[in-house]
Known about the structure:
The protein contains nine helices and six strands. By secondary structure, the chain is α+β, with helices and mostly antiparallel strands.
Amino acid sequence: MPTAEAPPLTRTADERLRRPRTRGSFRPIDAARRQLGLLQVADGDGQAAISWLIDLDQRRVADARFLAFGGPWSHPAADAFTQLARGMTVDEACAISPATIEAMLRDEPGTTSCPDAALAFIPDLQRRALAALPLVKLLPKPVEKQVYQRKRQQDWSDADKRWLPLSLLKKIKAADEAVKRVIADKAPAATHRIEGLHDDFRIVCIVTGVGDAEKQTLGLFLNSAVKAIHPELSVELA
C-alpha cells in the first residue's frame, strides 16, 4: 500500500489521472458479442482492477481497461500498464516490469517518478491474471433482438384496429384485468404487477407468491387469457 510519504504526482502522472487512456471495464455481454474471453482480476490490496478481453486462441489481449481506487499512483500506473497490455499476449503483458511503468510516468528521463512501493500492486495483478487465464471461457454469442417495427396502418387486422389505437394506460388496464381474473382463479395467494407493455404486444408481469413450477403453469393460462384481447399478445413472467 502506498504510504503517506509517497511523492506528489508528476505532471505526466497527473495528466493520466485527469485524462486516462484506458479507464473502464467490460461486461460479459461485451465479451460474448465480440467472441472474446473476459479476464477480470483485482490486486489483493484493493489498488486497482483490470478488465481484459482475450483472444483465447492466441492468448492475446484484444482490448484492456482498468478501474483504480487506491493510492494516488494507482490510477496513472494502472492506466499505463493497461495501455501497454493492449495487443500483447497475456504472458507478455504479465512480464511488463514495474520499472517500465515507472519510466512512463516520469517528467524527466533521469528523474524517478514514484517509489517502488507505489507500483507493488502491478506484479500482484499480473500473477492473478496468469492464474485466472485458464478459467476464462468463451461465452455463446448472444442472439441480437430484432428492432421492432410497428405494423403499417393499412396492414392492420380487425383486432389491431381495436387494440393499437388504445392509449398505453388503457392497454395496460385491459391486460391487468385479464391477469387478475386468471390469478384469482388459479393462484389466489399470488400477487402481481404489470411492469410494462413493450412492442405493442409484449406484456411483462411480475408475479410473487408462487413457486417456479407453478409460475410456468400460470404463464400458460395468462398467455391464453390475453390472447382473447388480441391474438398476438403475450405475457412474460418476471
